[in-house]
């Protein structure tokens, strides 16, 4: 990816996940066409509240013999 960014094959990148976290390749730090962000994934107040609503909704649906809000298939 670094080579592709340097050579222009990839115009730019916004990255929050790295192969060897928390180590970020030095080359990425030096590129103007790359934006780096800490890997916070779903760790926001809003996403945690939505996840809690989904869990409660799924539990209510399950115990009411209703379809789950987020179906799961075990392949």
Describe, in plain words, how this protein is organized in 3D.
The model has no long low-confidence stretch (mean pLDDT 88). The protein contains three helices and two strands. It has a two-stranded parallel sheet with strand order 1-2. The two termini are 33 Å apart. Strand 1, helix 2 and strand 2 form a beta-alpha-beta unit. It is elongated. With 75 residues, the chain is mostly helical.
Key descriptive features of the protein:
75 residues, mainly alpha, 3 helices, D-isomer_2-hydroxyacid_DH, D-isomer_DH_NAD-bd, D-isomer specific 2-hydroxyacid dehydrogenase NAD-binding domain-containing protein, hydroxypyruvate reductase [NAD(P)H] activity, oxidoreductase
Write a brief caption for the model.
Keywords: Oxidoreductase. It contains three helices and two strands; from the N terminus they run H-E-H-E-H. By secondary structure, the chain is mainly α.
Q: What class, by secondary structure content? A: mainly alpha
- The succession of helices and strands, N to C, reads HEHEH
* Major sheet summary line: 2 strands, parallel
> Number of DSSP helices?
3
GO molecular function, one term: NAD binding
Organism: Linum tenue
InterPro entries: D-isomer_2-hydroxyacid_DH (IPR050223), D-isomer_DH_NAD-bd (IPR006140), NAD(P)-bd_dom_sf (IPR036291)
Pfam families: 2-Hacid_dh_C
């Amino acid at each position: 990816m670094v080579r592709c960014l340097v050579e222009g094959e990839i115009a730019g990148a916004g990255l929050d996940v790295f192969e060897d976290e928390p180590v970020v390749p030095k080359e990425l730090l030096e590129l103007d066409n790359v934006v780096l962000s800490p890997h916070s994934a779903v760790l926001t107040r809003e996403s945690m509240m939505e996840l809690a609503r989904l869990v409660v909704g799924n539990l209510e649906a399950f115990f009411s013999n209703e379809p789950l809000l987020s179906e799961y298939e075990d392949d």
